[in-house]
Amino acid sequence: MSDDVPALELDGLTKTFNETRAADGVSLSVPRGAMLGLVGPNGAGKTTSLSMAVGLLRPDSGTARVLGADVWADPVSAKRLLGVLPDGLALPERLTGGELLDYWGRLRGLERGVVRARAEELLRVLELDGAEADSVLVAEYSTGMRKKIGLATALLHAPKVLVLDEPYEAVDPVSARVLTAILRRFTDGGGTVVVSSHVMALVEQLTDRVAVIARGRVLADGSLADVRGTDATLEDTFVRLVGAREVGKGELAWLSS
Ligand SMILES: Nc1ncnc2c1ncn2[C@@H]1O[C@H](COP(=O)(O)OP(=O)(O)OP(=O)(O)O)[C@@H](O)[C@H]1O
């Protein structure tokens, strides 16, 4: 494969739900080894775009390619290369974390010994291990623990491209550091990461590229420095591109009466 094939290439992805154009010609090219932050206000179309990018939601039009493999025309190749943490991941609830990874690894066609060794390591690094954890069902996990076990399922088959929808949401600061270390190691090894987040400071600290999306369209895309331009912070850029909403003096007056 030639070196200039992008890790992820979205071209004109469009999706309409009833009257709502959730994604309106979303195009993005993410080079190999990059860490891209996808940011945008609530309802901007981030989850819709990422779901189409990884083969979870069929676009009305447009294409998505992972290292050249078309996600919809050649899903087996594309999904082998992809590790995905979707929004609201539905997990088998009546399994422990270890059982879930075992099941997931077998579904991925990995050998039992490989699955066991990787699962043990992932559970330990993500602090989901221990005697008690061996008997705790995923149904009983906290929101942050669900994120972490979801991340473990995304990593288990050693993908080349990670697409993570809000991976830091509800994760405690210690686990967030672990997650950052994992993602950095992944890109240092040549892997590519796309993360969506609402936390601008985190995106600024973590990523080297950023894409801003609003009303289903990509408003800016490029290196962090280029997108930020002369703005002091990414938050300033975000507000400038997306528009600020002030709370007027007369609004919610009843709260302070
Ligand atoms: N399954 C669906 N049916 C109908 N409308 C939908 C559906 N999924 C998303 N939408 C609409 O599409 C738009 C984009 O939603 P999406 O979830 O992609 O935004 P988002 O940027 O991920 O938002 P958030 O930051 O709040 O998670 C919203 O207006 C949403 O209401």
TrEMBL record:
PANTHER family: ABC TRANSPORTER ATP-BINDING PROTEIN (PTHR42711), DOXORUBICIN RESISTANCE ATP-BINDING PROTEIN DRRA (PTHR42711:SF19). PROSITE patterns: ABC_TRANSPORTER_2. It is found in: Cell membrane. SUPFAM superfamilies: P-loop containing nucleoside triphosphate hydrolases. InterPro entries: AAA+_ATPase, ABC_transporter-like_ATP-bd, ABC_transporter_ATP-binding, P-loop_NTPase. It holds the Pfam family ABC_tran. This is ABC transporter ATP-binding protein. Its main location: membrane. SMART domains: AAA. Keywords: Antibiotic resistance, ATP-binding, Nucleotide-binding, Transport. It is a peripheral membrane protein. GO terms for molecular function: ATP binding. Residues 8-240 form the ABC transporter domain. It comes from Streptomonospora nanhaiensis.
